[in-house]
Amino acid sequence: MTSAATWALIGACAAVTAAIKAAGPVALGGRDLPGWFTRVIALMAPTLLAALVCVSALAHGDRLAVGSDTAGVAIAGVVLWRGGSVVAGVAVAVAVTAALRAL
Amino acid sequence: MSTIAATSRPSWRAGLRAGLPYALAGFLLSLSFGVLAREAGLSAVAAIAMSAIVFAGSAQFAAISIIAAGGGLGAAVAAAALMNSRFLPMGIALAPSLPGGALKRAAQGQTVVDASWAMAARGDGTYDRWFLFGASAIQYVTWVGGTVAGALGGDLLGDPQRLGLDAIFPTFFLALLLGELRDRRARPVAALGALIALALVPVAPPGVPVLAASVAALAGLRRTGST
What we know:
Oligomer: heterodimer
Shape of chain B: globular
Structural class of chain A: mainly alpha
Distance between the termini of chain A: 35 Å
Structural class of chain B: mainly alpha
């Protein structure tokens, strides 16, 4: 990748991110929203997070596969579910993944 | 913090505290980003600048992994945009809690990152904006700091895959998800979203599966009665 292309990538990513983050607040700021809308929005976070977790732990490109990272994330999930901190969860995920790959 | 009124200072401080664990995990995550960005051919300065200006983990990872796989600039930016599309509903949800004119609201909207947004929700559809700002500010500092460490010191670390650094990203989001799933009603909807995303992985371009999963949240339309 050339230097110019790199900076074009960074500039474009920054512009797109800023535009997306600004869109909601600018279009809808200060208005009361109907109840159905609030219920859908309340479900948006768990839905998107669940999708993000499963895709990042199971997808490798366009293939689905259980790998060492999947096992690491799953065991970290048990730690988190039982009240462990985010940092503890991340440490367990990294340790398990690295250990399985070292086998 | 002279610009912060006395009433908002406790929220700001609570946000900083609540954001700290995510900031520490984010340091490791952005460290792995710094290493990956150098491998993809970015200079250290470019990798650090990307974290400082874009400040969106999943979008940065999506864009860089496409560049690393030999993909084009357009595909990388499109993947980043699709990954970030989740900030659109988050921004819509946040909108009623933000005061000021269009420009001021747009600026406040830039502080939305996943962990801060999820934690700043009061649970009644409104958001504590100073909590959001505090939680995001501390994550910004470690996000840039981790990228500096990864971009400049990555050679000392070795292969990020062998070290298991790729497990950090999903674990980070899993911690947020588990917090959301304390609400039982969210569980079947989250499961449906995950299934939609996984079903689309083999056929859709990167980023699209996660975006498409958001249709599962439309289940909220069906619920009658008070919220």
